From TrEMBL, chains A, B:
PANTHER family, A to Z: HTH-TYPE TRANSCRIPTIONAL REGULATOR RUTR, POSSIBLE TRANSCRIPTIONAL REGULATORY PROTEIN (PROBABLY TETR-FAMILY)
UniProtKB keywords: DNA-binding
Descriptive protein name: TetR family transcriptional regulator
Residue spans binding DNA: 59-78
Signal peptide: none
Protein species of origin: Streptomyces carminius
Length: 215, 215
């Protein structure tokens, strides 16, 4: 998955291969009604497969079979398996992104930057924990996980807040440090393999923000 | 790859499947001379394949063919592809681990903990940059990358130094934050895709240590 725009194809559905998450959320481009119905049908089939067998068993072929369409349709629509997985969490990812970009403070604009940093980490930890299995499957699929759009959005947002907070230093690298704490593979490791409570990770985030911005 | 000891097998070579990197370095268990020769031959064939085709083309089958042995021999010896890849960087990984565990200060024991933290990051960044392609291949292979022994060693070492430095806070989580900065996939992303100089990452490390230990 790439953050550059998808190139046009000779897609028979009249749509481009889907890049469900833009670097920043915006309105989804209009689709023809039949394309939208097709998309909904494929996603419903995919969601059913995930619910029944787990995301690790979700394949493009299985979705095509479950939705009674050709395999090519699924590939044209979602690009690859990572695209399909991201489309499955598109709705909640959009709601999460809209909350920190445009929602009410302290998560959204209007609160002091350090307060927003604190709220962003807590919200992100809970978002990642909720969608852990799907997000882990996306990570495993993506060959260049640091290019995933959701990571890009988080990094950009953290860099902006660090700048506003006057944290100094190399903002881009400090933002990577904060983003690395909010990593679904790390969170999964700590909560699942090490048995840590999410509350401990939330406390750790607040402490980390205080250290990074030197309060 | 797991940090728990390998279980004995009925290996026809008289050796256990290899776990080349222990959580902490120690002497390698003695092997029979023919097993040692066999190991060397396989690793030489693997190194040749990596040099000629890149680590992404290294398979257990290709190594077996190149060394004129059965596929089962390669699997018994290295366990899986991640084990084979780790065996290939075993020598330099041991030297690196010995340097920070037992070597001269400021990297090894004897220097103040913050000075050791600084030296550890710089050494690790250079080590990861040098072996980037092989280490990336290991990461992609490992289904649970946070369980990889080299990560475990680094985390343990960082936690010890943070404790000695009196950093306070949740040492385990702070060590994960520092370790996340020393992540080969992040370093590869920043240097290769974003064109950052390694020197900038090294400066960023020194700044990060100062913030985390609140100096």
């Amino acid at each position: 998955m790439s953050v550059t725009p998808a190139t046009p194809t000779d897609d028979t559905d009249g749509v481009r291969p889907e890049r469900p998450l833009l670097p920043l959320v915006g309105p989804r481009p209009p689709e023809r009604a039949d394309a939208a119905r097709n998309r909904t049908r494929l996603l419903e089939a995919a969601a059913r497969l995930v619910a029944e067998c787990g995301p690790e068993h979700l394949t493009m072929e299985a979705v095509a079979a479950a939705a009674s369409v050709g395999k090519g349709t699924v590939f044209r629509r979602f690009g690859d398996r990572a695209g399909l997985l991201m489309a499955l969490i598109d709705h909640s990812e959009r709601r999460y992104q809209e909350a920190f970009l445009f929602g009410p403070p302290p998560l959204g604009p209007g609160a002091p930057p350090v307060r927003r940093l604190e709220a962003f980490g807590i919200t992100t930890l809970r978002h990642l924990a909720t969608h852990r299995d799907l997000l882990l499957a996306v990570e495993q699929e993506a060959s260049r996980r640091h290019d995933l759009p959701p990571r890009h959005v988080r990094h950009t947002h953290l860099a902006m807040l660090l700048r506003e907070a006057g944290a100094g230093g190399d903002t881009e690298l400090l933002a990577h440090t904060l983003a690395a704490y909010l990593d679904v593979t790390l969170i999964s490791h700590l909560t699942r393999q090490r048995g840590m409570a999410l509350g401990r990770l939330e406390d750790g985030w607040l402490d980390l923000v205080a250290r990074i911005v030197r309060r």
